[in-house]
Amino acid sequence: IFVCNCVCNCVCVSELKESVGQIVCTEKGILAVEQNKVLQPPVWNKTFAWGYADLSCRLGNYESDKAVVVYECLSEWGQILCAICPNPKLVVTGGTSTAICVWETGTSKERAKTLTLKQALLGHTDAVTCLAASSAYHILVSGSRDRTCIIWDLNKLTFVTQLRGHRAPVSALCINELTGDIVSSAGTYIHVWSINGSPIASANTFTGRSQQILCCCVSEMNEWDTQNVIVTGHSDGVVGVTTSSSFLLIPTDWVFLGRFQIKYWSLAFCDITISSHFNTPNGNIQFS
Fold it and tell me: How far apart are CA 162 and CA 124, in angstroms?
C-alpha cells in the first residue's frame, strides 16, 4: 500500500499478493482484497472469491486468507467474471452465461455452508462483466460485453430498464448513494444516468494514449455540491478526474502515478482519494 500526497510522493505501507480488486473504507480503516475477491458487509471480515479452475467459489477469512467454505454449485453457470455482496445475505454473480445469479447465504454457521439460487436474472446477450448495487436505492446494475447495462430492482429481483448507447463493452460501474445516479464506463467513455435510466451526460476521456477505463468511482459529498467528481482508473496508469457542470461532463485533471506501465483495477473514496493498481508482480494501493 502506498500513501501519496498531492505531489505524488509515495510511502509504501503494505502490499497484497496480487493485483488489487476491491477497496473498502470502514470506520476501522481501509481494507483491500485481490482481484476475483469481494468483501462481505457489514463487518467486512469475510471474503467471497471466484476464478478457480474448477469453477468453484469460496468464502474465506479476511485476516487469515483461509477458505472457510467451498461452493461447487455455481459451476453450471459457467465462468464467473464479477461478483458483489449487496448485503450479508446475498451474493450476486455474473459471467459468461450472460445471466446474473442472485444467491442467498445462510446466517447460521450450518446454513452458511450452502448457497441457494434465489433468482437468475436474464436480459443480456453477452457475458456480464461488472456489477454494482445500491443499498440506499435498492437497485442492482449489471454491465455487459453486449454494450448495455441493465437496472434491476434488488428487492423484487425484476427488470427495470436497459441503458443503451455505449460504444464498447461496459467495463466498470458505480452508483452514487446520495443521488442514485449511475456511472458506466465503456472504452474511453464515461456515461451518467439517472436512477430511472435517463441519460444525463457523457464524456470521452481519451487523451491520445492507448487507454481503456478499468474502474470508476464517484465522490459523495452534498448532493447539491458542484465539487463532486467522477474518478476513472485507466489501463495506461492514468487516473482521470471529471467534474459535472450544467449536465456536462468535463475531464479536468490527469494524474500519472508510478514509474511503470500500470493498470488501475479499483478505486474508492474516503477522506482522501484512494486508487489501486496492478504493478507486477505484486498488487499495491496508492493514496492521492
Answer: 9
Q: Is 182 exposed, middle or buried (0-12, 13-18, 19+ CB in 10 A)?
A: buried
Q: How many Å apart are CA 119 and CA 91, to the nearest integer? A: 11
Amino acid at 169: P
Q: How far apart are CA 14 and CA 111, in angstroms?
A: 35
Q: Residue 94 phi/psi, 5° resolution?
A: -145, 155
Q: Are 149 and 141 in contact (CB under 8 A)?
A: yes
Q: Are 142 and 175 in contact (CB under 8 A)?
A: no
CA 252 to each of CA 82, 200, 212, 239, 255: distance values in angstroms, whole numbers, following the listed order: 30, 18, 17, 11, 10
pLDDT digits (tens, 9 = 90+) for 138-182: 999 999 999 999 999 999 999 999 999 999 999 999 999 999 999
Distance of CA 149 to the CA centre of its chain: 14
Is the Cβ–Cβ distance between 118 and 128 less than 8 Å?
Answer: no
167: helix, coil or strand?
Answer: coil
pLDDT at 143: 98
Averaged pLDDT, 239-254: 63
Percent of the chain exceeding pLDDT 70 equals: 74
Which residue is it, cell 429481483?
A: 157
Peptide bond into 251 cis (omega under 30): no
Q: Tally the residues of the chain.
A: 288
Q: Are 197 and 151 in contact (CB under 8 A)?
A: yes
Task: Determine the distance from the C-alpha atom of residue 162 to the mean position of all C-alpha atoms in its chain, rounded to a whole number.
Answer: 19
Distance of CA 167 to the CA centre of its chain: 20
Give the model's confidence band at 137: pLDDT under 50 very low, under 70 low, under 90 confident, else very high.
very high
User: How do the domains of the chain map onto residue ranges?
Assistant: 30-122, 128-141+167-268
